[in-house]
Design goal:
The chain is an alpha/beta fold. It has helices spanning 2-22, 25-28, 36-47, 103-108, 136-150, 164-175, 205-224, 226-235, 237-248, 256-268, 271-282, 290-293, 311-320, 336-339, 341-354; strands at residues 63-68, 74-80, 88-92, 114-118, 157-162, 184-190, 298-303, 325-329, 373-375. It has a domain at 63-197 and 280-357: 3-Layer(aba) Sandwich (Rossmann fold). The longest helix has 21 residues, at 2-22. The radius of gyration is 20 Å and the shape is globular. Keywords: Hydrolase. This is Alpha/beta fold hydrolase. Pfam families: Abhydrolase_1 (PF00561).
Length: 379
Amino acid sequence: MARSAAKRVRRFGRTVAGVVLGGAGLVAGGAAAVVAAEKLLVARMRGRQDPEIGEGFGTLRGTPCTVVTDDGVPLHVEVDGPEDAPVTIVFCHGYALDQDCWHYQRRDLTGIGRRVFYDQRSHGRSRRGRPADSTIDQLGADLHRIIEATVPPGGPIVLFGHSMGGMSILALAQQHPELFRGRVRAVALIATSGRLNQVTLGLPAFLGRAVDAAAEPVMRTLAWQPAIVDQGRRVGAELSFLTSRMLGFGAGEVSPALVDHLDEMIRRTPTDVLTEFWPALSDHDKQEAYAVLRDVPTLVVCGDRDRMTPIEHSEHIAAALPDADFVRVPDAGHMVMMERPAVVNEALRTLLARAGVRETPPAPSAGGGTPPTIDAASP
């Protein structure tokens, strides 16, 4: 009986993980047709008044450049603000996203210094890396290259990281603790984790464990035919929209335009990139980096409805960093900086003030032109 029950739990886990992780890719194989109920639900959501309909997600751009990593991968980077700004803020995005997830921070935090936005390797406009290099340690090394290439020598740095971007910052802290003894003036860790050994997706514990156990084989299955899965992701628009709404955001009303923005970023990330990075997330453990951050002004932010990196992970970071500011955002989900931008931006301003960074009126950006290529080995 126990063996039979365990088998049923594993089978249930594979089903849930397949829907959540495979998303609309299941449509391509005929396993999950887009039913009328999904279309009706999405139509009702889209039929509500949407204050964000004309927000222009994905249209904010900076001066582009290319930073070449230590293993030769060109990363797409955009810079806002003057070169002689007193501080450079580097924004590190998360898994399956790109730099456009920082839309509200890019729009509203224009007077905080020089701002650097970049797409992680294999994400957004950056080039693909080798599958074997799809690791958190490599993302930390990439971040170091970004700093070398875009921050004036010896200049002060502030690091903002969301989800996998926060993990990249922790990897950097392990690899280059000397940066955090003076140059790194402040760190924000948003909806992230020091050790992500299980993703429960907000399910009860035993179901969450089943999903987590099933995730790796599901990812291997998706990796067999990524082109077919990608085609299915494009076809299954309603299922994809609902999955993005469920996993990205918390309770309450969420702008359909905002959900579309998140969904488009996720859909632009190829399935094989999702499968390549999944083991790095499930094996992630950078808790030793907390010691490096203890003397650095740090902000920890998380929504209490986060299904991807549950708030317990942020609570663990805050407990290890007793001097950190901890902001719990009620009813918000994983994309808390998109869902509650006013709350997150105010917390970021408070962090910068704590680190001695004064907000000033924004200077005109010198955007446009042909993107230069920067080999960070010789900035």
